[in-house]
Amino acid sequence: MCIYTFYLYTVITVSQNSIAEIAKLLQEFFRDLDVVPSDVFAGIVLLRRHQKIRMRHVVSQSENDVYQYLSGVPIVPKTEFLQLSHPDVMDEYNKVIHYMRFALAAYGWPVFMMTNTGCGLCKITPQLRCCCSCCGLRHPKGVELIDDNCCQCNFAALLHLSGLKQADLVYVTYHVDIGETPFYVALDHKHKKVIICIRGTLSLQDVLTDLKADAEILPLDPVKEDWVGHKVSVGAEILPLDPVIDDWVGHKVSVSC
């Protein structure tokens, strides 16, 4: 009971400290502005609206050589595109597609259902685990799986979206908190790589993690004070990778090889 109380106190303290940091950052950012969160949201919407109108206006003018905008970038006669007819470029393009599957898989069942609107539930149901704690199908063998839901829907979606086999997965965590993002570690036998795939923003905790956007100097040797990054990422709060790599990845790679 004492251990649980201490753990709960620690979690609450960390969350409060994180929220206090975010509040301080926003206070400094909007120091001279009398605004509320709804004003910021309305401003972002209006800014995007203004950008779209401006891009349409530029394209409609005959004196401009802008054909259209692609992801906000103007397409002009001198714009260079990927030459997929070149073997080296095509190889890199295929690698992007290959690893993009792993990136999507990190988002779990929400992305799986979004990309399989017709029969997604039918595809994923056979891989779901029994929610009964006494059932042998409760935990996948050989995988360190943390904080998935009762039927392990995220894990099942990960297998479908990534195309990985269960034996290729080393460590999977869906634990999410401020400064702690779900991720998984897997083995890519095709390219002989160890994959560390971090989920992007999907929950309120992820949004608060993004808001801890204060800059921090990158831990380089030698130190370069003008090289900075997102405080959470630089501080290594997101990924507890050291024990994962030491205890799991090395063992799995040696067994697989």
Automatic annotation (TrEMBL):
Annotated GO CC locations: cytoplasm; dendrite membrane; postsynaptic membrane
GO biological process, one term: diacylglycerol catabolic process
Protein name: DAGL
Keyword Cell membrane: no
UniProt entry tagged with the keyword Repressor: no
MF terms (GO), sorted A to Z: lipoprotein lipase activity
Organism: Mytilus coruscus
Ranges in coiled-coil conformation: none
UniProt keyword terms in alphabetical order: Hydrolase, Lipid degradation, Lipid metabolism
EC number(s) reported in the record: 3.1.1.-
InterPro entries: AB_hydrolase_fold, DAG_Lipase-Related
